[in-house]
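pasting for the record
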Amino acid sequence: MTSPDNNSDSGIDRDEFVNRFYERYPRLSRVFSSLRQNPLSGNTLRMMIKGEEEIRRDEQQVAALETPVMWKRNAPIVISQYANYASDKLPQFWNATLPEINERYGEITRYEHHDVPTLKETATEYKLATVGRAIQHKAGNEGFWVWFDHLMIDGVSSVTESYDLAEDIGIDVERDYLERAVKYDVYNNVIWNDVDALMGKENGQTAVDIQQQLEREDPVFIVFVNGMQVQPSYDSIVGAIEEIRASHAQHTENQQQTRQEQQAGNDNGRTSDP
């Protein structure tokens, strides 16, 4: 049996058929084209599962994802932690030092979390950073910090345990979403923005040291108070906060003195008028 000739009247013009099909279903055209170019493309698979428009909305929401914050959002004093979940210093600081800082300064301080994991998608700490930001995205700051607190207290050794933890404590995010976020590296840009932000705060040898830490895959844990790097200890953070408060108080006093002098000058001008 012979195959039909494409040029015969009884044959089917394959190219024409494909072109008509793609004209009618342009989304499938792009999916199949991407599959041919890269069969393992995460974006291709995501489009096939969810649809292009929904993926685009997700990406816009992810791009607008804010830094996880707690305590007083608009406070004049900001404590920022740049952390790798594999760091031993992170849970020690969270469980032993930070509660005392919160008790003393929580009403006047904003606390931020930034992710600086080992920059390999296959690394557990990178996946944990992704899970955390997915929880924040879907359950808000409160959901993130509840999950983060339990993680710091209980500890986990795998990304699967982090999914279990979210379920056990009742975080309102579907496990399937967390798994897909990790599989397709949905929060890649968010994590890299945190890394870029850290490098932007540093200069000279300090920046080189951090770069070398990341290349060696050594866990990073750094704390800043209003952009100034401090040791992650109670005394160091309290000293930085008190210095900022003293500076603010002096600035306020100077402003008040200036206003009083201006008012006194105005009053003298009025009394000297004929």
